[in-house]
Amino acid sequence: MKSRIRLLKIRGEEEKRLDDLVASEAPITIKANGQRIASLLATPSYLSELACGFLASLGLIENFSDISSINALDGEVDVKGDIREGKELLLTSGCGKGLISHPERINRVNGNFSISPSLILKLISEFQLRSSGFKETGCLHSAAISFSDKILDLKEDIGRHNAIDKVIGGLFLKKEEFSDKAILTSGRITSEIVIKAMNVGIPMIISRSSSTDLAISLADKAGITLVGFARGKRMNVYTHSERIKSEVRSQKSEVRSLAERIRELCKKKNAIILSHNYQPGEVQDVADFLGDSLDLSRRAKETSAEIIVFCGVHFMAEIAKILSPEKTVLMPDINAGCPLADMINGEELKRLKEEHPDAIVVSYVNTSALIKAETDYCCTSANGLSVINSLPKDKEIIFTPDKWLGDYIARKTKRELILWNGFCPTHLKIIKDGVLKAKEAHPNAEVIVHPECRRNVVLIADFVLGTGGMIKRVKESKNKEFIIGTEIGIIHRLKKENPDKIFYPATELAICPNMKLTTLEKVLWSLEDEVYKIELDPEIMKRARKSIERMLEITS
Ligand code: CIZ
Q: Is 246 in the pocket of ligand 1 (CB under 6 A)?
């Protein structure tokens, strides 16, 4: 499993930004009969095989007949059956340190130094020369700490983690500063390596090997420069290239902040930046307009700008393109998809329509252009009730893809809807017990949740609103405290617009990993290179536009 990411490739004097493939990495939880046994970081494929192999290797299952069922969904594999109790697990020298960090714990690393590509290559060649254990045995990993043009310490170990822990421990014991150092490693850069650097505040990791997508995304957020494939005359800079000062780039002035450079480029290229309410705070702050997908698409339609950089997820940028096909619509990270939108495909919807040939199809905007083309009416979380209420009472209605939004609308409108079994994994992290605990801790707070939450969460809320509705409600409310049950990115905007009010997330875990793929550096690169362009089949766009325009007619 691979992801395509944009990086800076340096070969000798030449620098090029291009898309390249990196390995995928994801946290996977293995459960036995519903009980968590372990969380691993793994390539997210063959999860049933991974879980069975993991249990069998530990001696917790022996035969196929020990297993009654395997359920693999959204990064969790639950194996049910006759599974023995495990003893305390021993950390291996390999990948399995079971260290998983949630993005809400990401600390920003502030290392204010820069280094030239030629110095990186000099350090890495010295690193290799001094890794004598590897040369002698062929089975040791090495890690080093560098400062400026010197390698300060180098350690070898059978495990790449252990080698890194040893050099970090060395700095620690010597009470040395971390923020002006770099880690060099012989192993690949996975998320745990980035987490180690982040936890101690080391702003640069240099490897002879490559990096995974999760490590890149974590490093991006933590402000860490990741350099991979550093060998010979070449290297790939995956994140925070501002610390790599080549001759070419140091001639250009790099003193301006990323935000300043983005704003300047917008002016020069007649571009605007649209940001969804769930985007990281610094992206929201650099945007021309903030809103939900519908607000933003309206902005995209109305603007006289020629280029629109859409900071959100894929289906949102598609809506902007569908409504403004003549404009260039760019996404800073093309990997920012929507798992809910991916839960239904064109064939599945066509089959459902064949089973209910007279039904009207209403789809939430969180769908691909292809689904919208097969849909009669779109709706958003803000206008779902109005759309359904406007439809003839004697007609069957198919509602896709979000079953919880559908359930809410069905109860509110007293209409029976044929629901698709889709859901937003981020909103399902908000659970009833968590909301009740938050209410107990903050009894005066108003509880506002998104209709993508489960029914038992929606039923205990004071208000059930989409993000646009939440922004409005908080502004109008006399209340001072709010429990917010949606993706926590919205709290940045709520705080900024209501500095006298206090906000509590219903859970810190409600973070959409796709929304958080956008960074300021990617926004800048997107504007500079005019990538990634949203391109859609004109016929699909025409049909999809109809379902969006029908919604707009009802709600205008
Ligand atoms: O429509 C949107 O933008 C989504 C997905 C959520 C919301 O409520 O804003």
A: no
The mean per-residue pLDDT over the stretch 408-424 comes to 98
Measured at the CA of 275, the angle between CA 273 and CA 279, to 5 degrees, comes to 135
- 0.85 exceeded by the pTM? no
Residue 477, exposed/middle/buried by CB under 10 A (0-12, 13-18, 19+)? middle
Predicted pLDDT at 171: 87
For 153-212, the pLDDT digits (tens) are 999 999 888 899 899 988 888 888 999 999 999 999 999 899 889 988 999 999 999 999
**Conformation bin of residue 232: beta by default, left when phi > 0, alpha when psi is -120 to 50:** left
Which phi and psi (to 5°) does residue 126 adopt? -65, -40
At a CB cut-off of 8 Å and minimum separation 6, what does 440 contact? Answer: none
384 lines ligand 1 (CB under 6 A): no
3-state secondary structure of 434: helix
CB 467 less than 6 A from any atom of ligand 1: yes
Residue for token digits 């004071």?
A: 462
CA separation for the pair 306, 267 (Å, rounded) = 11
For 252, residues 6+ apart whose C-beta sits below 8 A from its C-beta are none
**DSSP alpha helices (H): ranges in 270-389?**
281-286, 293-302, 314-323, 346-355, 369-373, 384-389
- Nearest-angstrom CA–CA distance, 350 and 342: 15
Alpha helices in 27-114 (DSSP H): 47-57
The answer to whether 404 and 451 have CB atoms below 8 angstroms apart is yes
Q: Tell me, what's the pLDDT at 134?
A: 84
Ligand 1 pocket check: which of 319, 323, 380, 493 to mutate, most ligand atoms within 8 Å of Cβ?
380
**Crossing angle, helix 520-529 and helix 258-269, to 10 degrees?**
30
Measured from the CA of 465, which atom of ligand 1 is nearest?
8
Average pLDDT over residues 231-259: 78
CB 183 within 8 A of CB 205: yes
Other Cβ atoms less than 10 A from the Cβ of 45: the count is 10
User: CB neighbours (10 Å) of residue 181?
Assistant: 25
Cis check: omega of the bond before 392, within 30 degrees of 0: no
Structure tokens at 34: 């519903």
Q: How many CA atoms lie within 13 A of 241 on its CB side?
A: 23
Asked if 219 and 240 count as a contact pair (C-beta separation under 8 A), the reply is: yes
Query: Please, which residues have CB within 8 angstroms of residue 293's CB and are 6 or more apart in sequence?
Result: 276, 312, 315, 316, 319, 365, 366, 380
> From the centroid of its chain, how far is CA 280?
10
| Residue 381, ligand 1, Cβ within 6 A | yes
Please provide residue 340's backbone torsions phi and psi, each rounded to the nearest 5 degrees: -65, -45
pLDDT at residue 278 in the model? 98
| Ramachandran angles phi, psi of 141, nearest 5° | -95, 155
Ligand 1 site, residue 365, Cβ cutoff 6 A: yes
